Structures are given as structure tokens and as C-alpha cells.
Amino acid sequence: MRNSILGRQVRVHTGALVEDSIILDHCDIGRRAKVRRAILDKNVKVPPDAAIGYDLEADRQRYHVTESGIVVLRGERSKVEVTGLVV
After folding, report:
1. How many angstroms separate the CA atoms of 42 and 75, rounded?
2. Among 7, 40, 46, 86, which residue is least crowded by beta carbons within 10 Å?
3. Maximum C-alpha span of the chain
4. pLDDT of residue 81 exceeding 80
5. Given pLDDT bands bounded at 50, 70 and 90, which one contains residue 18?
6. C-alpha angle with apex 68: 64 to 70, nearest 5 degrees?
């Protein structure tokens, strides 16, 4: 971990490197994965040996990359069910 902010219940596995990033709640960074200059939304799972923020052209094909080179990964959202609602 270098120059990064981690949310609650973030799991960083053995050998993973996270630098200059913001990792929101409930993310999972796999073994030996590398994350640099990225913002990970809630519930993002980075697979083992993945590299995010190291090849911006490849990242642009899968994620949003800002003009300044920050990679943004959208997380999975849990569904909210409203029961017993009377309108």
C-alpha cells in the first residue's frame, strides 16, 4: 500500500500492490494484482495477477480512464427491494 485510501472491509491479498489509488468499501484485490492511479467503486473484485493503471490503452477498452490517466472501475450494486410500499 502506497499513497492510497482504503474503505471498509477491503481485502488485499498476498503480493498485491496498490498505489496512488482510492479503494471503496468491500473490494477484493487478488494475489499479486497491481493497481495504480485508480478509483475502485464499492464491491469491485480484481482478479489475481491483474494489472490496472499500467497500460492505459488496454484499460480504456474495459474501464473508464480520465483525461489525466486515472482508471475508474464501476462496482456491482446490490438490488434494493421495497416491499409493502403503498403509493
Report:
1. 5
2. 86
3. 52
4. no
5. very high
6. 45
pLDDT at residue 83 in the model: 55
How many residues would you count in the chain?
A: 87
Q: Please, where are the H alpha helices in the chain? A: 56-62
Alpha carbon separation from 78 to 17, 28, 30, 64, 75 (Å, rounded): 27, 16, 21, 21, 10
Is the torsion defined by CA of 73, 67, 21, 58 positive or negative? positive
The DSSP symbol for 9 reads T
What type of residue is 32? R
Amino acid identity at 56: L
Residue 57 φ/ψ, nearest 5 degrees: -65, -45
